[in-house]
Amino acid sequence: MRRLDENYEFFNVDVSQWLNLLSTLPELSSERGILYLLYQGSEITQAFHSLQGIRPDLTGPFSSPAIAIRQLQESESVDAVIMFEQGLAVYLLAKIQAAFTPEMDILQYLELAQDSIDEEFGRRFHVWPQEFWGKGMFSLFQRIRTLLDELPPDFLFVLAIFEGKQIWTSLIVERIAGQIRRITTTRQLAPKSFETSEWQTDYKNLLQAVSQQINPPTLGFFTDDETLRFILQSESPLDFIRQARQRGLIIIDPIPSRIKSRL
Amino acid sequence: MEQNRSEPEITTRIAQPLLKLEGNSIKVEGQQLPLYSGSVDYWRIPRDKWEGVLERISALGFRFISTAVPWNLHEVASDLFDFGTTDKQRDIEGFLTLCREKGLYVTVRPGPNVNAELNYYGYPKRILYDPEIQAVSAFGTRVIIPATPNPFPMPSYASEKFYDEVTKFFDAICPIFARHLAPGGAIAGVQIDNELPLLFMNGPFSADYSVHAIRWYHEFLEGKYPSIGAINRAYRTRYGNFTDIEPPRALATTEREALPRYLDWMEFQEYYVGLALSVLASLLWSRGVRGVISFHNSRNILPILPLNVGKTERELDIQGAGLYLGKARYDEIRRGILYLNTVSRLPFLSEGGLGTWPWGPPLDRSDQEFALLVAIMHGVRGFNAHMLVERNRWLGSPISNTGTVDETQFAFLKRLLTILHEVEFHTLQRNVPVLLFRNFEYERLSGLCTSSNWLTQLLGIPTELLLNNRTFSYTETIQKAYPAMWEAFYWGLSRSKTPFLIGDTDMDRPALSHFQTIFLPSFDFMSVELQEKILEYVERGGSVVLGPEIPYLGTDMRGCTILGDTAGLQAPSTRRPLVGLHEPFSLENGQVRVGTRPAGTIKSYGKGTFIYLGISLPPFTFRDEATEAENVATQILQQLKVEPVGDVQNFAVDEVYWGTRAPRVIFQANPTNQPQSARIRVAQRALLRDLWTGEQLAQRGPQEIALNPYEVRIFEVIR
Fold first, then answer.
1. B146 contact residues in A (CB cutoff 8 A)
2. Pick from A6, A45, A56: CB nearest B149
3. Shortest Cα distance from B129 to chain A (angstroms)?
4. How far apart are CA B31 and CA B347, in angstroms?
5. Cβ contacts of A246 within 8 Å, gap of 6 or more
6. Measured between alpha carbons, how far is A218 from A207 in angstroms, rounded to an integer?
7. Closest approach of chain B CAs to the CA of A46, in angstroms?
8. Nearest to A7, CA basis, from B75, B46, B90, B118
9. Interface ipTM
10. Which of B182, B333, B710, B711 is the most buried (most CB within 10 A)?
11. A7/B119 touch (CB, cutoff 8 Å), yes or no
């Protein structure tokens, strides 16, 4: 089953809002640097430090990947070590190209890539600390997959994050029969600018406009930029959302019963 | 609905005057028009809004637009095409007529790949799943392009059946195009395909191993080598026929003697791209679409192999480039434009990004405006604002698809076009004495040694990690040492404020004569042709700065010391000295020295000079660290009497002085995130007019100019 409609519309997207939304995406970055290692047999053949560049001094024999990544993370004082076998990238690409089927959309193809990498985790692909891997780009696909699996096949999701009286970012996503059909922002609802005096009450104007001009929303999520940052940094986002909602810092309206029961 | 006709009635236009590229502009209907253009996709704009949208474009000052004509939009069933009979959105003929009425010339993009964020990039899905048409990877799998929303198998551009299918579309669309060619009609140009090297994006052995491509591979080898004996000598093999030769599927050697076969595989990919464009062009020409400007689009601002600009411009008029880079990537933009200035007939941004695709680089308006100004500053002579008019799967365009405008972007573009026309920017020239060579022989080797692909890029795995470190018994790992030396030359020239352009080793001999000095990274091997070309250039009076090695092998990896023997250059037998604080670089009495040690030579040859640098430079990551490279370049240029241009006290600010005898237009760019100032050098009585504000500066003569972070200022010099 496709996740993205073949004729999906991405239109009337506000540039500033879109850039703000992209700025919230997880990045595989770190302050102390990441050490990337390529190995063949029992020898490290290439080493690259994200802050220092190529490190030829780190190449040479090692006992086992599991030990090497722990030792190097400590001795080099880096945030993470990522180590993989020479030829793995070419092998993985060949594998997913062979497994591709014409019905697949891009999200499914990326999931296929993610699954192939996961299969190699701890075998030909090693990360230390292991949880570091969950911070990268592939965790984003995992989150999208989880979110789409959680939500019903037909929904219209409205997200608005407010900064003072302005909308800092917004997103309107419509899914029909399990496939995303429309991606847009409040610019779709122009000419109304949705400047608010009190977003906790004025968000209803936005819901009304979406109802009138697109379809009745099935899920609305509204908060301010500061609360969003706390959510993104929280180790337990669901717990944080639960508490913030009780304090009126987050409004979820309408709220499907399935989600309500978890909050 | 129009059935495809096998023998379309085509108006021949051979006898009529053809459009010409002349003086960095297109000569059409008695006018010399610089190629400033904007993208608009007629089929994505409501039919009743076409007129309003075109009027907005004209109001900006554009005389050209570019439009995609997607195959899979017009092919409504196999071999059945609709050009507006059933769906007015597909009325290409009506659109072209309207453009003509509005005084707009059009460049059409019939693909077959148009991308346009369209499903299957505009190819009909039915052809993509035909095994006879698909490209094949080294593992025998299909080559999947990870496109949104549908990944798809890339067609083989060597497949005859692929061209049979393309011909059906061209048979249908070309009669319409032919009726609308300029002069007389709106069509002034045609873009042939789009980003064709996409097929090779997954590394040196990603594609194309289809039977059709292997046939092309054999034809390429037969064209390159006079006999099977010659190839056996180069490869150290005993093949009986060219068709016995298997293409390499992985880099399975550590021996340099085995490399010629691999380097040929890399060169074959350039041949493949050139031949595919040539076949597509001939299909259009033979159907009456000729006499207009033809071009292709590169996805990178600095076209990289296998897209060889010299080779594509043998088939087409212009190899354009795409620009989607932010402020922080100033030097990538600069390099691309300095290169196109040298090797292209018309340095042209076929996609000068105004707006971006949804999953594209997160660029804001200030990024895009800065990037476009930087490209113009360094010599782009034409650009296509892409997308000028917004459409599905795009964001950030100046004009919406219903014709409303973003006032700020609109004002920027209007002012820019006014300035360019006012100073006749396309006619301005400047003196550039120095050329920095991209050495394609080493770039092919570097390309061969990488295993980066879209998956590793997505994971954020650095490409440097995936560049293997085999030395192949050379003095050093050329695939790593070459880019390091090239960077040292680039930053040395940049920081010393020397006007220079970037060329490549495929440039022909007459083109080199425009330059006083060439900087050429050189290592263990160099082709006979290149060694001879360099010798001839110096003999006729040019200067060549080369190093750190004197080549002693040809590209067949057999002994070849023409350059060193003829010019009397010899690499020192000792380890190359590292230039540094305590071991300074100097040029004295015909000797290159590092500290007290000899590290190269200055040799006269014919009417010119060789400067051989047998040195190592300390590695650097940022321009601020390239002090040694600057010192080396400055001393060499003083020796060769090449004058700097601009403010040598502040290398952070970049300047370009346009005008040959005296500056007429001066650009200053601040590519940093800090305020800067730099001195403009003009005659004492000269006045400066800020072209953006229109105001004349109060003071006459040389003066200090303040620049905000990421700002480009443009001044006209008034005498």
1. 106, 109-110
2. A6
3. 8
4. 20
5. none
6. 10
7. 6
8. B118
9. 0.94
10. B333
11. yes
Domains of chain A, residue spans = 4-24+152-260, 28-135
Provide the pLDDT for residue A137: 63
A29 — pLDDT class (breaks 50, 70, 90): low
Tell me, what's the pLDDT at B574?
78
Cβ A87–B202 below 8 Å, yes or no?
Answer: no
Please list every residue in chain B whose beta carbon sits closer than 8 Å to the beta carbon of residue A3.
none
Tokens describing residue A131: 């949880």
Residue A183, min C-alpha distance to chain B (Å): 9
Token representation of residue A84: 């993989």
In the structure encoding, which two tokens stand for residue A161, read together?
Answer: 């994050």
Nearest CA to B386 among B549, B535, B195?
B195
Q: Tell me the C-alpha distance between A31 and A36, whole Å.
A: 15
Q: Which residue of A has its CA nearest to B147?
A: A106
Q: Are A68 and A108 in contact (CB under 8 A)?
A: no
Chain A contact set for B459 (CB, 8 A): 28, 117, 136-138
Q: Say which of A19, A53, A87 has its CB closest to residue B621.
A: A53
By the 8 A CB rule, do B568 and B556 touch? Answer: no
Pairing of strands B152-153, A250-252: unpaired
Amino acid at A59: T
CA distance A62 to chain B (A): 18
DSSP letters, B660-695, are: SSS-SEEEEEE-SSS-EEEEE---TT-EEEETTT-P
CB B90 within 8 A of CB B172: no
Ranges of H-type helices in B245-289: 259-285
Contact A8 B395 (CB under 8 A): no
CA-CA distance, B200 to B347, in Å (whole number)?
24
Angle made by CA atoms B291, B296, B300, in degrees to the nearest 5: 155
pLDDT at A151: 85
Q: What is the pLDDT of residues B280-338, one digit of tens each?
A: 999 999 999 999 999 999 999 999 999 999 999 999 999 999 999 999 999 999 999 99
Evaluate whether B161 touches B132 at the Cβ level (below 8 Å). yes
How many Å is the Cα radius of gyration of chain A? 22
pLDDT in tens, A127-141: 999 888 766 666 777
Q: Give the residue on B whose Cα is nearest the Cα of A98.
A: B141
* A198-222 residue pLDDT tens: 999 999 999 999 999 999 999 999 9
Task: Let me know if A218 is exposed, middle or buried by CB neighbors in 10 A (0-12, 13-18, 19+).
Answer: middle
Report the pLDDT value the prediction gives residue A136, as an integer from 0 to 100: 63
CA distance B210 to B158: 8
Q: What is the CATH class of A4-24+152-260?
A: alpha beta
Chain A residues in contact with B143 by the CB 8 A cut-off are 97
Query: Roughly how many angstroms between the first and final C-alpha of chain A, as a whole number?
Result: 29
Interface contact flag, B468 A45, Cβ < 8 Å: yes
Q: Cα-Cα-Cα-Cα dihedral of B282, B286, B290, B296, to 10°?
A: -20
Which one has a higher pLDDT value, B10 or B712? B712
The string of pLDDT tens digits covering residues A154-197 is 999 999 999 998 999 999 999 999 999 999 999 999 777 677 78
Tokens coding B265 = 């595989």
> Domains of chain B, with CATH numbers?
2-209+247-426 (3.20.20.80), 434-639 (3.40.50.880), 654-718 (2.60.40.1180)
- At residue B113, φ and ψ (nearest 5 deg) are -95, 120
Query: Are A5 and B365 an interchain contact pair (Cβ–Cβ within 8 Å)?
Result: no
What does the DSSP assignment read for B194-228? S-GGGGGTT-TTSS--SHHHHHHHHHHHHHHSSSH
CA–CA separation, B358 vs B396, rounded Å? Answer: 10
